[in-house]
Design brief:
One of its GO terms (molecular function) is ATP binding. Pfam families: dNK. The active site is at residue 27. ATP binds at residues 79-83. By secondary structure, the chain is mainly alpha-helical. The protein folds into 2 domains: 1-61, no CATH class; 63-158, no CATH class. 53% of the residues lie in helices and 9% in strands. A 3-stranded parallel beta sheet has the order 1-2-3. The relative contact order is 0.12.
Length: 158
């Protein structure tokens, strides 16, 4: 529930943001939030979550672009460990695989906004400015639809 209320505050901030700001970036998509709840909460908690979620999502803005970063579970676990966030310390492979499967199913059918699916296996967006710049350059070419970004394939075209 904490994360849901946090998302609600972030949505309010997005709605009230400067209308003249050229770009706004959010690291969440409210529509995928229930996936985390379904994998994590028990039945009673999930019922309460769903009631609150329905109230919060009434006026959620539609993003201009959604990005889904994909990588194998072992790489995701390694990146989680390297981040060193205390709340993430106890995430195990089975839980992460369940969450990853739920995300993959969700984005397979997602069509509410343009979608970019990124093969993030061999790129380091947090630690490599070149990787980040290449992704941003590719993102700027997207106006609609579903797109796939495989860095090695895309680099070999140019």
């Amino acid at each position: 529930m904490f994360f849901l209320f946090q998302r609600s505050k972030q949505l309010q901030a997005l709605r009230q943001a400067d209308m003249f700001a050229p770009v706004r970036v959010a690291d969440f998509l409210l529509e995928k939030d229930p996936l985390f709840a379904q994998v994590t909460l028990d039945d009673d908690e999930l019922r309460l979550y769903n009631q609150v979620y329905e109230q919060i999502t009434v006026d959620a803005p539609t993003p201009d672009l959604v990005i889904f970063l994909q990588a194998p579970i072992d790489i995701l676990l390694d990146r989680i460990r390297k981040r060193g966030v205390a709340a993430e310390r106890h995430i195990d492979a089975d839980y992460l695989a369940s969450l990853n499967d739920a995300y993959t199913r969700f984005f397979h059918y997602y069509d509410s906004a343009p979608l970019l699916i990124v093969n993030a296996t061999e790129i380091d967006l947090a630690g490599n400015a070149e990787h980040y710049a290449q992704l941003v350059e590719y993102m700027l070419t997207i106006n609609s639809g579903r797109h796939y970004y495989n860095p090695h394939h895309n680099q070999s075209r140019g």
